[in-house]
Amino acid sequence: MSRLSTNQLCLAYGSRQIVLELNLHVPDGLITALVGANGSGKSTILKSMARILNPVQGGVYLDGKLIHRQPTKEVAKQLAILPQNPTSPEGLTVRELVSFGRYPHQKGFGNLSSEDNRMIEWALQATGMTMFSGRPVDQLSGGQRQRAWIAMALAQGTEVLLLDEPTTFLDMAHQMEVMTLLEKLNREQKRTIIMVVHDLNHASRYAHHLVALKDGTVLYEGQPEVVMTSRMLREVFNIDADVIPDPRTGAPLCLPYGLAEEEGATQDAIIGGSSLSEEREDRVQALA
């Protein structure tokens, strides 16, 4: 089942075509990761899903209705987006930032209701940011800052979260902090999460559903165990890599060892490189 989907979606910046006739169904209650090389259309698709970018043709559907024809506030009550590298005014406190998430629900002069305050406190608690609520956002660490922005998205009270590279520019510990939080939100609250991810091992570890894009087209889609193969990595990212089970989680682990050579010179390598993934898929099927 899918509340959020696209039908023959075409996206462009001016005369430059980015996405062509995209048909995508986002699984409800799961974490979906969009992966692909730079310029593959990942962030562009996310912007269209968030109603930030209008389609040239086709459309994005939310609960069966064209999202670009719905009022902005109504859409904001159903899905929230965390853009890449968000910024806030200097001196703005964490609680003030999180309160902005209640804007779609406010009426009149925008005074916070008891329900607004309840949602703000809940979002702060869910992200572990209660103790930082009075601190200026620009004085937080990278991981704390991302958690504050996620809290603002949660305060909207939506069932769908869109995140554009939520771990960009974070060190390894803060990356795990943010990804673990998203995993917890999905597991405990069944939030549908769609995120653009650059780190393939993060994508395969934390997502239930992978969408591999190249030139605005979906080349592979499905569970990480099916999508994350040596062949996919060569076709989508132009890299040669081994894919092995993570010794702790069992998720596919990408181990790049070189750039892929020209297609005509590597037909044997393509066949040989896929053998490891095929063996892994056989193991997955056997376990199932």
Structural write-up:
This is Iron complex transport system ATP-binding protein. Keywords: ATP-binding, Cell membrane, Ion transport, Iron, Iron transport, Membrane, Nucleotide-binding, Transport. Its main location: membrane. It is found in: Cell membrane. It is a peripheral membrane protein. The protein is of the alpha/beta class and 288 residues long. It folds into two domains: 4-223, P-loop containing nucleotide triphosphate hydrolases (Rossmann fold, 3-Layer(aba) Sandwich); 228-288, no CATH class. Helix content is 36%, strand content 26%. It is built from ten helices and twelve strands. It has helices at residues 42-49, 72-76, 94-99, 114-126, 142-155, 172-189, 200-206, 224-227, 230-237, 267-287; strands spanning 4-13, 16-26, 31-36, 57-62, 65-66, 79-82, 160-164, 192-196, 209-214, 217-222, 239-245, 252-259. Strands 6-7-8-3-9-10 form a six-stranded mixed beta sheet, sandwiched between helices. A four-stranded antiparallel beta sheet has the order 2-1-4-5, with helices on one face. A two-stranded antiparallel ribbon has the order 11-12. Strand 9 (209-214) and strand 10 form a beta hairpin. Helix 4 runs antiparallel to helix 5 (142-155) and helix 5 (142-155) runs parallel beside helix 6. The radius of gyration is 20 Å and the shape is globular. The two termini are 22 Å apart.
